[in-house]
Amino acid sequence: MASLSEEEENYVRLALLLKGVTPRAVRTYFDREFPPTSLPSTLSTSHNTLLDLKIKRIINQAQWNLLIPRNGVPDSKTFDVTLMICLIRNLTSINPPINGFDSLPLPGEITPGSDLARIKCYRNKLAHHDSNTIDTTYFNTAWREISEAVSRLGGQTMYQECQDLKVKILDQSNQEIMLEIKQSVEEMKELKLTVDNLGMEHSRVTENLRELQTSHNTLQTEYSKVMEIVKDPIRENIKELIKNK
Length: 245
Hints:
Layout: H1 6-33, H2 39-45, H3 47-55, H4 61-67, H5 81-91, H6 112-127, H7 136-154, H8 156-167, H9 172-244
C-alpha cells in the first residue's frame, strides 16, 4: 500500500470500520430489542406506525420492501444501519441523546441511544466527505468514539476487531477498495458539478419566466388602457346617433 498516503489510509480504515464492523454492532443491539423470532409479529403490530414513517418518507420504498417482504419473513440481516436505528427510535422506549439523534453526542454520553446516534453521525459525515483523505487528528478521535460505541453495543470481541483493523496491514483487496473510493469521489464531484449547473440553469429559467410574467402583466395593463380609450369615442358616437333619432 505504499501508493497510499497516511491520510488516504485513514479514509480506507474508517470506511472499513463504519461499513464492516459498526453494522454488526448495531444489529447485535437491534436483535436484543427485537428478537428475530418475534420480529415479524412486532412489525405487524406496528404496521400503522411504519406506514406513517413511509408516508413521511422517513422509510423509503426499498426499506419498506424489507419490512414487509412479499415472500418470506423480515430478517434483520437484510436491514441497513439507517433502518435499524429508525426502528429502534420509533418502536422502542430508548432515551435519545441530549441533542437528539441527528447530532453527534457529547463525549460523556454513553447510553445506547447516544452510541447509535454517534455511529449514525459518523457514517453520515463519511458519506458526505468530499475527498478520499482524512487527517490523523480527526481520524483518531473518530476511531476512539466509534470503537467505544461498538464495544458497548456489540461487546468486547467487536471492540478488539476495531483495534486490530486500526493497525492491520491493508492488503490488495483494500487497495482495490481505495481505487473504488477514489473513483466514487470523482464521480460524486462530477455529479455535484452537474447538479450545481442544473441549479444555475433552473435559476436562469425561473428568472426569465418571472420577467416574461412581468412583461405579460404590463402588456395586459396597457391593452386595457388602450381599449378604454377606444371604447370612449365609440360610446360617444352611439349616444349621438341615439339623440339624432
